[in-house]
Amino acid sequence: MAQAKRNLSKALASVDVVVEVLDARMPAASANPLFDELRKERQRPALKILNKADLADDQVTEQWVRYFMDPTSLANALPIVGKSKQEVRKIIRECQKLAPHRTDAIKPLRLIVTGVPNVGKSTILNGLLGKAKAKAADEPAVTKMITRYEVSDQLVIYDSPGVMWPKVDTVETGLHLAVNNAIGVHAYNIEDAAIFLIQKMLERYPQALSDRYKIEFEGVDAVTFIESIGNKRGMRSRGGSVDFERAAQLVVTDYRHARFGRVSLQVVNDLIYNLSEIDVNKLKK
After folding, report:
1. CATH homologous superfamily of domain 2-159?
2. Looking at residues 158-186, what average pLDDT do you find?
3. What is the per-residue pLDDT across 236-255, written as a single tens digit (0 to 9) for each?
4. What distance separates the 2 farthest-apart alpha carbons in the chain?
């Protein structure tokens, strides 16, 4: 982590704009505070890419775009749904607005693409490069080192590793990262992640759960709902009871494969609450 921070700080000295890729379904949880800390030290503007916007709730994404726009700290935000030429042109256009003095071969626009693991950073980078040079995979920490690409006489792009910060600030942030597969499977309990996910879905998108599992959601909590899924799917342990872990894995997998439709687990108003004291283990007792 310390080495990654030093490398990133050094790279920032050579760039004009920090392009931070976020998951549109959890923009704040997927925003590494290290990136903002280092870019502000270097006085570099940032473009926040709300990636996977086609999987998120449109209205919620619009709120996040407004939230991240900050003229005082030279920040802007842009929802992106893929790596088409049209979407890539949007990114370049917004970066040029943040660095209007970098426009030609003498002063090419220099970007660094950053993001925590598994937010789709490599997909965005490949779109910017015009060819699949960055390795993309559905697992954390695929990119290992900062790489420099001379895309054209007018554009230079740096690719940074998917870096996590040393300590996640709240339990809720950690669970957002777990549900969205941004941290390794050994760093969290899948049952806790599933309970957190279903809680959020019952609060905001209960009908999506009902449509997916054909289970009545009125008057049930997250644990009961997951148990009902396991019971309906015949997921049982040797003793005959519901295999809660298998059912938990199912609901998390369904979310990751967008089988609930377009949902956002994090809204701007969530930031006003301090949820660091939640102990999700107690919810299962």
Report:
1. P-loop containing nucleotide triphosphate hydrolases (3.40.50.300)
2. 85
3. 988 889 999 999 999 999 99
4. 72
